[in-house]
Amino acid sequence: MREINASIPFDKRLWKQDIAGSKAHVAMLAQQGIVSAADAAAITGGLNTIAGEYEAHGVPEDLALEDIHMVTESRLAALIGPAAGRLHTARSRNDQVATDFRLWVRDAIDQVEPALAALQRALVGRAGDHTDSVMPGFTHLQSAQPVTLGHHLMAYYEMIGRDRSRFADARTRMNRSPLGAAALAGTGFNIDRHATAAALDFAGPTDNSLDSVSDRDFALDYLMAATQCALHLSRLAEEFIIWASQPFGFVSLSDQWSTGSSIMPQKRNPDAAELVRGHSGRIAGCMVALSMTMKGLPLAYSKDMQDDKPPVFEAHDLLGLSIAAMTGMVESATFRTDRMRALAESGFATATDLADWLVREAGLPFREAHHLTGRVVKLAEDEGVKLNELALEKLQAIDPRITDDCFTLLGVDASVASRTSHGGTAPSEVRKRIAEARAAIGMG
Ligand code: ARG
């Protein structure tokens, strides 16, 4: 029973929030005349001492005391005597843990936020160096149309921006205090829930005591935002892994963020990127774990809910590492722009530009232009040349409306420069977006 019941091995991570919650609670109890000023002072002093002890030596893991709340309360009793027993007036561990955990998740978001901003700065910084670096853009991992590396990196800036807004939404939604909901029904003591909410920097108290102690939406909101963010990191990691492979050769990862092989001396393995990709699965697993814990629980508190913390802690640790690793990889990678350009030029990636030209200059319907261009690509393939290396006579044999004007468009730079629609890959467009991004994330 002791082993299955105890949560102290993991919920000791809540100790700071637990002490902050208790201090806010006891200050309010004194304010309301529910405990004497002298007892409140003794309790607050004792809690400060305990915080110092935890800081210096860690939280003692006494399984018999079950959880962080009981471990701290029992230490308080040892330090100040019977007055310690007054701290838990008008409170239950149910509203206590709900408060502590909200505070913890709120702090977690406040740590993720600047880390994601740093990743965005890394992406925008590298994008700015590569607004004109042409690379193949892919669909189905097949060379599709040329894009720029700057444009590609800025795609991840947008994703991380949405992640930040999801975390910010979650923070706003969770920022209400459950403290004072007591076990489930509220309390007959004349407490001031607005005061404790304000003391803990919540926007106000929650409005239904049953909901307050049974709600773990805030933890799930965090895990869902973390999962979405991890999926983005995983896609970027996957691209780095593919790009770093020899057949691609688009990037070489720094020594710092790769490892050698113990047997093959030529290897530089993208371990960090692979672990970011791997961790995303575990983070999604944490989100599913808590979803399954909560599904079907009747109101209000059930001990199942003690299992809410390990998945959140695990996801938070993995996400923090993943963001830091991706930031380091983005900052330190060497992009092989010559190789990117060579592949962009070799994959007939400007075929769409020829089809578009036939529509614009020769007035063909797009479907017919598409068909003709297919024949041109086939010819280039047979001859083993690039599109802009085909002889004009051969092109005109396919369709006499083709003139040598089209050749200027068949180069990758012209192709990229022409895509000036809002959000397009043209360097002019990408530079515009980078300028907006720099202003938005304080890069001056
Ligand atoms: N350790 C418990 C948890 O994390 C604290 C709440 C216990 N409440 C109770 N009524 N047993 O959920």
TrEMBL record:
Entry annotated with the keyword Lyase: yes
UniProt-recorded Gene Ontology molecular function terms: argininosuccinate lyase activity
Catalytic activity: 2-(N(omega)-L-arginino)succinate = fumarate + L-arginine
Family: Belongs to the lyase 1 family. Argininosuccinate lyase subfamily.
Major site of localization recorded for this protein: cytoplasm
Alphabetical list of CDD domains matching this protein: Argininosuccinate_lyase
InterPro entries, alphabetized: Arg_succ_lyase_C (IPR029419), Argininosuccinate_lyase (IPR009049), Fumarase/histidase_N (IPR024083), Fumarate_lyase_CS (IPR020557), Fumarate_lyase_fam (IPR000362), Fumarate_lyase_N (IPR022761), L-Aspartase-like (IPR008948)
HAMAP family from the UniProt entry: Arg_succ_lyase
Protein name stated in the entry: Argininosuccinate lyase
Gene Ontology biological process terms, A to Z: L-arginine biosynthetic process via ornithine
Pathway: Amino-acid biosynthesis; L-arginine biosynthesis; L-arginine from L-ornithine and carbamoyl phosphate: step 3/3
Subcellular location: Cytoplasm
Organism per entry: Sphingobium boeckii
Enzyme Commission number(s): 4.3.2.1
Domain Argininosuccinate lyase C-terminal: 348-417
Signal peptide location: none
Domain Fumarate lyase N-terminal per the UniProt entry, residue ranges: 2-285
Record key words, sorted: Amino-acid biosynthesis, Arginine biosynthesis, Cytoplasm, Lyase
